[in-house]
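@channel anyone free to eyeball this complex?
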Amino acid sequence: MIRMIAALVGAWLLVLFMGPKVIPFLRKLHFGQTIYDLGPQSHQKKQGTPVMGGLMIVCAVTLLSLLLHPGAYLGKWDMILALLAVSLLSMLVGFADDYIKAVKKRHEGLTPWQKIAGQIVIAVAFSAYCYLHPMVGSKIDIPFFHVQWDLGIFYIPLMSLVVLFMVNSANLQDGLDGLLSTVTSVSMTGWAAMALIMMQAANELHQAEAVTSYASAALFALAVCGAAMGFLRFNRYPAKIFLGDTGSMFIGGAVVGMAMLTRKPLYMLLMNATLVASSLSVIIQRIYFKVTHGKRIFKMSPIHHHFELSGYTETQIVSMYACFTGILTIASVLSTWLN
Amino acid sequence: MIRMIAALVGAWLLVLFMGPKVIPFLRKLHFGQTIYDLGPQSHQKKQGTPVMGGLMIVCAVTLLSLLLHPGAYLGKWDMILALLAVSLLSMLVGFADDYIKAVKKRHEGLTPWQKIAGQIVIAVAFSAYCYLHPMVGSKIDIPFFHVQWDLGIFYIPLMSLVVLFMVNSANLQDGLDGLLSTVTSVSMTGWAAMALIMMQAANELHQAEAVTSYASAALFALAVCGAAMGFLRFNRYPAKIFLGDTGSMFIGGAVVGMAMLTRKPLYMLLMNATLVASSLSVIIQRIYFKVTHGKRIFKMSPIHHHFELSGYTETQIVSMYACFTGILTIASVLSTWLN
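replying in thread with the prediction:
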């Protein structure tokens, strides 16, 4: 219990303390955001805000996860190592992208195919890992009905698509000050609760290894949650720093990692519905544009820009997303807890 | 489980639907806020925003608590009736205040002594009720140490002060757009979790009545949480409607009611630390002012106005309070859950 609280509070404080040192440093390195020409006009003033702030979250979470690792070493099935692997590797793709943007001052970063290739490798590897994991396997929980759905060998290709989808969704949602960090603080609390519920169930069945595993997953989720809240100190409107692809892809990896290790990718579609909406709105917009030869269904995609151009302020949209995520997260946790 | 989710989602949707009907109605009745002359200058533009929006929360919570009441009727020890009683009675004092302000256009409302007299009656009655309640009594939990402290007969006077303090704290915190509603959504989630943890403990001991009682308390907390998130739709910056004393005192009563019925008033000082800070800052400011014959320790009290005059925007302060409450709430729930 002390470890859990230490992960949450420690990550929060660590990011709070790092901020005032790291932000001027990144600014000096000219790691400023080159604002995407196609975003809303009002965003042009954000030009020059440092990116890669996500590195603070990455450092805090990695450090605390390893330091506070609960007891027994479980080798290759250790959930905390798996979670760190999938989120750090996703982060590396984003980091490469940010680095190229910042150094070469091109806003495109990596080419889309370079990104996708890297992500496919990570996605397939992590899905195969989960498939083979003795506490995970090919069955996933169906929300609200307390039955499981066995995907068999199709687990690997399907879940690979899910990983790809979620990591890029997190990247797409990261378009308003404080949006992704706020939504992450809310939903990660839910993922920590999910892991703790599975820990308690394992405890009743006296499965000592599963107890340690789920405890370590909860610890990771709490560290991400605390770090995201600390980061909000600097990232809330008006933002002094951005997550960058570095931070958003780390968060995407962390979310999809938690969901898959707790066998709850279908709950993820609920709890992280705003992430799904971010990606889907981009896809729908493109298809509609092609089919209608130039018409748009949203004023701009991802959908948070649509709300922005519809007259909502950035802070209103953040609060709206947070409430929506809160309702869905609490409902999902209740349905798992009180089954 | 379905009842819990229905309380949360139902209250949220009910307030969302009520808003567009109730706000123009209150505006037509000229129930606009007369902005306190002593607040920050920038708040003068809020003149005329309707108050008593809290009535939407009150209606949604009362209706859903009664409709979704889980099963067996427990008579006078029914926690949901006790929670409704303490929060509705506290609300009535606030309502009288709002009504006088709105109709007579005096910003003072009730005289301080009228308010306090009404609140003392409620506070003593509720404390005595808890003292006699077979599932509550005079023992309170000490946070993090899993021991209880028996206050004996001193429970009644001490807890009466706590009720008075918290109801007025909620009223004091309600000074920035969306502040109290946001903090309430976060901390009420924690109180629902506390009640559910006690429900599970009672379930293991096969205490059927306690299970029903705590379930009903959790249901109430979830309804308040959902209603507060729905209210945020209209109350977030720039606010179209205020909670008014009606809403803030209802929330104060709900918080202190949850804390006392789960025997956790000491956890409340943590989870609702921002409420405590709001009151304490006013008290410290007044004492310092008297002792130093006219000096001020904060630029303005309650402390959220101090932050405002220190250069933070309203939305920054709301997000700051929400993160702080989130960290403390998660830590408190973890310490109770994993004891």
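from a first look: Chain A has a mean pLDDT of 88.
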